[in-house]
Amino acid sequence: MIHDNRCAEFLRSEAFAVVGAAKNRDKFGNKVLRCYQQHGKEVYPVNPRAEVIEGLSCYASTSDLPESVKSISVITPPSITACVVQEAIKKGIKNIWMQPGAELPEAVAACRLAGINVIADGRCVLKFLGFDNNWLPAQGASYL
To answer: Please, which residues have CB within 8 angstroms of residue 93's CB and are 6 or more apart in sequence?
Structure first.
């Protein structure tokens, strides 16, 4: 039940970001981004090496995100997750969901110390929200 409360708190955000968003539709960084789009969420991709992913302008780092973003999904190697968490703390992010493979015990501890609601127990937002890999946005639809 505690985990469900953490997930519910995470999902109450006005806007979300996917740190580690990917252009490749087979990668989890892309699937998580599309999952938020499927569920009508305002979402921002973070990838310093891309300009646009799934029709959305990319942000180079967590620090650059709009103030409305209070929840981020992290899909990065653990060594990068530590840096993402430090940026998120400075930015005032309230909720971090570390997707499977992104978890790092030190980063989880830093989140807890900073009072961030952190989900890092192997659960995946794709399963929690439900994801249809074949879904495509309606032509001309805007998600921002």
So the answer is: 62, 69, 70, 71, 72, 116
Give the pLDDT mean for 25-50: 96
> What is the average pLDDT across 109-126?
96
Terminal C-alpha separation, the chain: 32
For the residues 120-133, what does the mean pLDDT come to? 92
Query: Element (H or E) spanning 19, and its range?
Result: strand 15-19
Query: What tokens does 11 get?
Result: 């999902």
Q: What average pLDDT does the structure give for the chain? A: 92
Structure tokens that stand for 128 in this block: 């929690």
22 domain residue, yes or no: yes
Q: How far apart are CA 25 and CA 74, in angstroms?
A: 17
Q: Which among 68, 135, 138, 73 has a CA at the least distance from the CA of 99? A: 73
CATH number of the domain residue 104 falls in: 3.40.50.720
| Strand 69-74, strand 117-119: pairing | unpaired
Give dist(CA 30, CA 25) in Å, integer. 5
- Count of domains in the chain? 1
